Amino acid sequence: MRNFEAEIRREKPALPPIKIAEDESRRLGSLANSTMDLFPRVAQFLARELERATVTEENDLRGVVRMGSEVTYRDDETGASRKIALVYPHEADIELSRISILTPVGAALIGLSVGQSIEFETPDKRTRGLTVLAVSE
Questions:
Q1: Residue 82 — left, alpha, or beta (φ > 0 → left; ψ -120 to 50 → alpha)?
Q2: Cβ proximity of 25 and 55 under 8 Å
Q3: Which of 9, 46, 70, 102 is most enclosed, with most CB atoms within 10 A?
Q4: Which letter, b or e, does each residue of 100-137 get, where b requires 16 or more Cβ atoms within 10 Å of its Cβ?
């Protein structure tokens, strides 16, 4: 007899639905493809996120994490909150809390809305969860 409770615990939670603008999707797709050799894990993660995203109109993205958004999120393990700006790699500056889309946190945040949570894998292969608390342009 199978242990269904143990099976349920091993299953990954369903990924939340995400939305992205067409032009942003195209640009981020090109970025993921062009960095596949340099950053294979995060580029593949970003590409998967873009593939599952619903492409939508600009005016349907209020409260959605986009490039250039200021995002406050909670680390679901520690409970700590952090406010960052999600940026392209050449604009990243950790001291100014400007986080690149080509980081696991950046790729996880894109397309999420306030209240949504996501789990993702860190470079050291741990599972990390975060929840979006606020989004502003």
A1: beta
A2: yes
A3: 46
A4: bbbbbbbbbbbbbbeebebebeeeeeeebebbbeebee
* Cα–Cα nearest to 106, from 78, 69, 59: 69
Q: Going from the N-terminus, what domains does the chain have, and what CATH number goes with each?
A: 15-136 (3.10.50.30)
Residue type, 135: V
Listed in order, strand segments (DSSP E) in the chain are 19-21, 54-56, 70-75, 81-87, 98-100, 117-121, 127-136
pLDDT tens, per residue, the chain with 137 residues: 444 444 444 455 678 999 999 999 999 999 999 999 999 999 999 999 999 999 998 888 999 999 999 999 999 999 999 999 999 999 999 999 999 999 999 999 999 999 999 999 888 888 999 999 999 97
Buried b (16+ CB within 10 A) or exposed e, 25-46: beebeebbeebeeebeebbebb
